[in-house]
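Contributing new records

If you add data, match the layout below exactly. Sequence lines come first and carry their own label; structure lines follow with theirs. Keep one chain per record. Anything else will be rejected by the validation script.
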Amino acid sequence: MAIVVSKLDPCFLPNLDSNIPWASANAKATSSVITPLANGKEASILSVLSRPSLTNVIMSGFIHDNGLASPLNRGCFYACHNDQKNLTGVALLGHTMLFEAFGEGAIEAFAGLARQNASPHLLMGERTAVRQFWNSYAIGAESPRLIHPIVFLQLSGPFKSHHSVTGLRLATPNDLEQVVHAHAAMAFETSGVDPLTKDAVGFRERYLRRIGKKRVWVLMKKERLIFKTDITAETPDVAYLEGVYVSPEERGKGLGRSCLQAIGCELLQRKKAIYLFTQNEDARLQSFYLNLGFTIAGHYDLLYF
């Protein structure tokens, strides 16, 4: 398969050679044309990303917030077409690599292009697709630094019961330091990288933008953070939650359940669904969310570089 990059931008310098070891021996030779996406095409790309998946909601959230071409996306959006000029995939390649591929060769094409990115941090996607991507991306016996299997959960109906939580509110810039340190600790636990060590200024700036968009919820007790969660990505239909935190001394008291029910009820007044994920091996946390009414919607992998 030949890979052609059209209208190359400075995000990547593509490798035009690609092998597909798992392709059918009877498959016809095809070519894929990868084109960087420019602002102005948001509506058509959002329609392509309408399938209800975790990665599609994250990519759609970036597009709704920043457009297709913005440094705030921390990467570049690309479209892949086959030699019949049919669209076969959309990807965000950069700090985080996400993709939606629905045609032969798109995953291999995106992987070949992404190989030239100097500093990917995370590859995320549905398990089978991520493994196909990695098989085309990796050189020799290369392996990711960390692999985290995760379970994609969604809630599309009302909570069975809930009540308001006194003091639960949207975060303000005055809360920045406490929520930043809580989120950084959670990121380190998952990825092994402390964002406050790697990029403290950028991490705080990104978090402050999220607070400004009214997407961080907090509960304080005597000016100390005891609960927080973030709406990491948002579309007109879906809110994706991440970074659910309860301070250690408050765990096991039902606080997390009460706060999530209150936030979820508010969100479901204007959204069709709430998405989040848990790590595959954390049966206790999965049970917690399933008891709240979430259902399993898929199995994904996080590959850290």
